[in-house]
Each structure stands twice: as structure tokens, then as C-alpha cells.
Amino acid sequence: MNEILIVEDDKTIAMGIEFTLTQEGFSTHVCYDFHKAKKAILDKPFLLIILDVNLPDGNGFELCKLVRAIDDTPVIFLTVNDDEANTVMGLDLGADDYITKPFRLRELISRINSVLRRYNRQPDPQTEILLGNIRINPDKARVYKNDQPLWLTALEYKLLLTLAHNKGQVMSRKQILEGIWDVAGDFVNDNTLTVYIKRLREKIEDDPRQPKMIITVRGLGYKAGD
């Protein structure tokens, strides 16, 4: 149980939080609205939940009530409202912390670690994933080629991780887009996915013209090779 659920309708803020948490070794799941967040909460447990109070189709207070009806998952509220009434309401509902926007991402990480220590929770270690001469360390969000650090953008990393987690399985373009959606938001579509596949191949393949790590399966999609 490594995942932190991020419920935030502002995609820029969500992307910043998601990227920072990934760099800290956490896995993330991002929802931009109330109903998708509710489904995620009911589907599986999370290490911690970050809740925006104001959502386009509901509010974080109701989601916090749902969380507390299920288990004791730590909850941190994010809000633009810094008045005492909102803070008290959030804490009375069982939230563990309350952060007012704008905030610094390092402060958020510090608050998360503090809450997890109080709950005595630590992320489960993740085994490294091997793709030929590529080694992925999900705990640290690091990638190595021939044991040398390889720099990837957040989207390239998530794309590689999505394929690696499904190694040997053919993934449709739609499945891949769904896997990287929480990083890319609206910036990646079916047309530009080809560009990102090409860029990633140029970084991880010995010969991008004859790829062995990311294999095209004509008419179906892509798969990560052995």
C-alpha cells in the first residue's frame, strides 16, 4: 500500500504534487473531481489522502466523511479558505492536517511525513523492475541504463513505468494514455503519444530504429520487451 490519493481539480497543482511525491518515492493516484475520487476511495485503500475542499461536483468534507466511515486512512486538506470555521470543520471531521493555498511543495512533503510518522505508516518497498539493461527503482523514481543514471521527464518516467508494470502485455494506445493521464492532463492525446514514445526510445534503446524495450505491435499498440 504505497499510493497516495490526490484529489485536486486544479491540474497544474495536481501535477506539481504528483511529480514531487513521485520524486520522494511515493506512488500516486490523481482524481480531478468528487465522483472519481469517491470511486477510488471505495475501490482500494491508500497510504494517505490529500483532499481539496472545493471540487467542481462536490466537496472534500463529504469525501472525508466517507473515508472515516471506512477506515483510519490519514487525510490532509488543501483549501484556499483559511478562515477558522473551515479549519475547525475539517479537523472535526477527522482530518489530520489542513494546508492553505498557496503552499510550498516541500512544506506539503514535510506535513505528509509528519502525519505518516504519527500513524506509524511507511510505504512498502517496491522491487526494482528490469527491462534488459534498463533498471527502474520505483521507490526513488530513478531509472538507470547500464547502471548509469538516466534522466527522464515526469511524463517519460510514467510512460516507461506504465509499460514496465505490464511487461510482455500488449497495451492499446488508450490504455497507455489512461496510465499517464494523471501526469499529462490534457497535454497528451493519441497523436502526441507517438512523439513521447519516440523520445523515450531515443533515451532507453541502444538502437531506437530497432527497439527492443518498447515494441510496436501493429494494429494493437505497444508492449515492453524483456
Automatic annotation (TrEMBL):
<dbReference type="Pfam" id="PF00486">
    <property type="entry name" value="Trans_reg_C"/>
</dbReference>
<dbReference type="Pfam" id="PF00072">
    <property type="entry name" value="Response_reg"/>
</dbReference>
<keyword id="KW-0597">Phosphoprotein</keyword>
<dbReference type="GO" id="GO:0000156">
    <property type="term" value="F:phosphorelay response regulator activity"/>
</dbReference>
<keyword id="KW-0238">DNA-binding</keyword>
<dbReference type="InterPro" id="IPR001867">
    <property type="entry name" value="OmpR/PhoB-type_DNA-bd"/>
</dbReference>
<protein>
    <recommendedName>
        <fullName>Stage 0 sporulation protein A homolog</fullName>
    </recommendedName>
</protein>
<feature type="modified residue" description="4-aspartylphosphate">
    <location>
        <position position="52"/>
    </location>
</feature>
<dbReference type="InterPro" id="IPR036388">
    <property type="entry name" value="WH-like_DNA-bd_sf"/>
</dbReference>
<dbReference type="InterPro" id="IPR001789">
    <property type="entry name" value="Sig_transdc_resp-reg_receiver"/>
</dbReference>
<dbReference type="GO" id="GO:0005829">
    <property type="term" value="C:cytosol"/>
</dbReference>
<dbReference type="InterPro" id="IPR011006">
    <property type="entry name" value="CheY-like_superfamily"/>
</dbReference>
<keyword id="KW-0805">Transcription regulation</keyword>
<dbReference type="GO" id="GO:0032993">
    <property type="term" value="C:protein-DNA complex"/>
</dbReference>
<feature type="domain" description="OmpR/PhoB-type">
    <location>
        <begin position="126"/>
        <end position="226"/>
    </location>
</feature>
<comment type="function">
    <text>May play the central regulatory role in sporulation. It may be an element of the effector pathway responsible for the activation of sporulation genes in response to nutritional stress. Spo0A may act in concert with spo0H (a sigma factor) to control the expression of some genes that are critical to the sporulation process.</text>
</comment>
<dbReference type="InterPro" id="IPR039420">
    <property type="entry name" value="WalR-like"/>
</dbReference>
<keyword id="KW-0902">Two-component regulatory system</keyword>
<dbReference type="GO" id="GO:0000976">
    <property type="term" value="F:transcription cis-regulatory region binding"/>
</dbReference>
<dbReference type="GO" id="GO:0006355">
    <property type="term" value="P:regulation of DNA-templated transcription"/>
</dbReference>
<keyword id="KW-0804">Transcription</keyword>
<feature type="DNA-binding region" description="OmpR/PhoB-type">
    <location>
        <begin position="126"/>
        <end position="226"/>
    </location>
</feature>
<feature type="domain" description="Response regulatory">
    <location>
        <begin position="3"/>
        <end position="116"/>
    </location>
</feature>
